């Protein structure tokens, strides 16, 4: 009985950790969130757009041109490095091999562009693999 409870707790913890490490919004929700800014001024977008809510971090300051408001954003992720249980290392088989880290950290980049007409957003476009 105790083993089943411990196993259940481990399973629950891994599910909760998995949920905590996934993006806050899926692609459809992201597009819907960004679409609400169409029709708004570029200054309104800059003050109200919450990149953290989308699961992004600002890589650079927003870039404003006459017809475009652009955000270059990143999504940092950590890719676990698989570990062999007992790698065959010849004479030293079964000895631990020190590895400096358990994961590989990367920042995936995305660009969010609002098309502007008279400083009012008329459309939003996303480009990049993490969008």
From TrEMBL:
Entry keyword annotation includes Signal: yes
Signal peptide: 1-26
Keywords: Signal
Lineage: superkingdom: Bacteria
Protein name: Lipoprotein
